[in-house]
Amino acid sequence: MSTGDEKAALRRELKTLREEAHARDPDAGETLASKFPLKLLERYGPVVAGYLPIGSEIDPLPLMERLEAEGAKLALPRLETDGSMTFRAWSQGTDLEDGPMGLRQPLESADTVDPTLVLMPLLAFDGMGVRIGYGKGHYDRTLSGLREDGRVFACGLGFHAQMLDELPAEPHDQPLDWAVTERGSVPIFMMRTFKGGGGRDDGPGAA
Length: 207
Ligand SMILES: Nc1nc2c(c(=O)[nH]1)N(C=O)[C@@H](CNc1ccc(C(=O)N[C@@H](CCC(=O)O)C(=O)O)cc1)CN2
Ligand SMILES: Nc1ncnc2c1ncn2[C@@H]1O[C@H](COP(=O)(O)OP(=O)(O)OP(=O)(O)O)[C@@H](O)[C@H]1O
Known about the structure:
The protein has about 210 residues and is an alpha/beta fold. It has helices at about 5-25, 30-35, 40-45, 60-70, 140-150, 190-200; strands at about 45-50, 75-80, 85-90, 95-100, 105, 115-120, 125, 130, 155, 165, 180, 185. A hairpin with a 5-residue loop joins strand 2 (about 75-80) and strand 3.
């Protein structure tokens, strides 16, 4: 099976997995907010892109609120008419509009920003930082642009149940640098550092 086919089949299973995790712990977003290490904001802030949760995604809003109170400038993704994704400045109470695929998103008139810390929704991730999303490549393309232009830190947000041993990777996949679940941090860049040396048999530890 090609990696693309594998990913399509995986996505269906992963959606079910995430729905189950969400049903078991609907308040996981609150727990996640309390476990998020503020040193990530200190090192990689201040412009933090979050998202408005759809379906069974873990709710990042409690975390975004906490980070804003700590001085973060928040942003949200916006799908543009040309199919690209931009990030726009946002804070609680800023106007939103209906976008494609049932998304709520900032208006075209909102300021475009380059986030330094991107909190990413996902269907699943693994200890090497491979992430699977909805398969439209929005985050992959946008992150690759941001990484070419300068420094950006990619942090996946999800349920612990969404962390799998190993996901199929494709060359265009933009790896996560870190992930946070309701159980704590998964510092992926350390695993990447270890990859060339001792292999990845130790597995990621959710601290
Ligand atoms: N909350 C959130 N916002 C986001 C994303 C995301 O994954 N999550 N995106 C990430 O790229 C971008 C939007 N891209 C998207 C691409 C595909 C689908 C999609 O296939 N949606 C399903 C329904 C999902 C559900 O209910 O769980 C659909 O339309 O059938 C949604 C958003 C930007 N904003
Ligand atoms: N940097 C890029 N440039 C051009 N096309 C890209 C790039 N990154 C991804 N794509 C395209 O986007 C499509 C979806 O990619 P992929 O399946 O990896 O998405 P995903 O990582 O699951 O989720 P998400 O949509 O959230 O990024 C692929 O067909 C791929 O060719």
